[in-house]
């Protein structure tokens, strides 16, 4: 698909753990940043329950990755790793972030059941908050102006969490970002020593790219139809190559 300038556009990306965003949709964010988008990352835990890497190490890795993307990053106060639950308090907290940052696009993990429960819960939190943020009289949000994002998209964190029923897949050509994406994922050194997560993500992107007729692609999902601004945008899109 031909490049579209994103100057002035804002993307708010949510992850449950410090590496989710970079591994799941980091290549797409690098592409958006290169086109002029402003990016903010929100990580709902510091990976403190993980087998590898301490809380402080994983936080520093996420900060380094955000700096590489030219993004800002937040670690809001939550119940923490393995304890994320989509309750009203955290949903309102996230809705406030949306009203303050006022994103055009929101990204969150898919809600597939067969994955780390924090990923599933983060999906629900972001999804519900995105809706509450636009309701004018939502109790608890009265001090901030309502905001409706243009679109909410979901991304796969792992191969076990590939979409779910009712989601429309969208492939994004990230061929020109592969090398930088590797560098971005390498920021999370504490997580790549035991399992080669980088190779897993690259192989999946390569397979998706082959299907689309490009070198590498990442898959996002929409819960409903995506509205294009004109036939010109439609003509810039491409279907599968087989």
What is the third-level CATH name, the topology?
Answer: Rossmann fold
% residues in beta strands = 15-25%
Q: How many domains comprise the coordinates?
A: 1
* Helix run count: 8
Task: Write structural notes for this entry.
Helices cover 39% and strands 15% of the residues. The protein has eight helices and seven strands. It has a seven-stranded mixed β-sheet, sandwiched between helices. Strand 2 (38-43), helix 2 and strand 3 (72-74) form a beta-alpha-beta unit. Helix 1 (20-34) packs across helix 5 and helix 3 packs across helix 4. The chain is globular, with a radius of gyration of 17 Å. The two termini are 17 Å apart. The mean pLDDT is 93.
Provide a short characterization of the protein structure.
By secondary structure, this protein is α/β, with parallel strands linked by helices.
Defining traits:
about 240 residues, alpha/beta, Rossmann fold, 7-stranded mixed β-sheet, 8 helices, 7 strands, about 40% helix, globular
Please write out the topology:
Blueprint: E1 10-15, H1 20-34, E2 38-43, H2 55-69, E3 72-74, H3 88-101, E4 105-109, H4 117-132, E5 151-155, E6 168-173, H5 178-186, H6 189-192, H7 197-212, E7 217-222, H8 231-236
Parallel strand pairs: 1-2, 1-4, 2-3, 4-5
Antiparallel strand pairs: 5-7, 6-7
Helix pairs in contact: 1-5, 3-4
């Amino acid at each position: 698909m031909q490049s579209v300038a994103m100057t002035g556009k804002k993307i708010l990306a949510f992850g449950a753990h410090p590496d989710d965003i970079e591994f799941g949709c980091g290549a797409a964010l690098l592409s958006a940043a290169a086109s002029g988008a402003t990016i903010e990352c929100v990580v709902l835990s510091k990976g403190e329950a993980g087998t590898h890497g301490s809380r402080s190490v994983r936080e520093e890795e996420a900060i380094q990755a955000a700096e590489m993307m030219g993004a800002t990053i937040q670690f809001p106060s939550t119940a923490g790793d393995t304890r994320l639950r989509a309750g009203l308090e955290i949903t309102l907290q996230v809705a406030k972030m949306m009203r303050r940052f006022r994103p055009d696009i929101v990204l969150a993990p898919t809600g597939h059941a067969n994955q780390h429960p924090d990923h599933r819960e983060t999906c629900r939190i972001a999804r519900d908050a995105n809706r509450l943020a636009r309701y004018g009289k939502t109790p608890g949000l009265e001090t901030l102006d309502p905001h409706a994002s243009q679109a909410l998209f979901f991304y796969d964190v792992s191969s076990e969490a590939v979409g779910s029923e009712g989601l429309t897949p969208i492939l994004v050509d990230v061929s020109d970002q592969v090398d930088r994406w590797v560098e971005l994922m390498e920021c999370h050194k504490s997580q790549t020593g035991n399992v080669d997560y980088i190779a897993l993500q690259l192989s999946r992107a390569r397979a998706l790219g082959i299907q689309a007729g490009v070198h590498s692609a990442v898959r996002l999902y929409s819960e409903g139809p995506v509205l294009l601004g004109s036939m010109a945008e439609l003509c810039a899109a491409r279907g599968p190559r087989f």
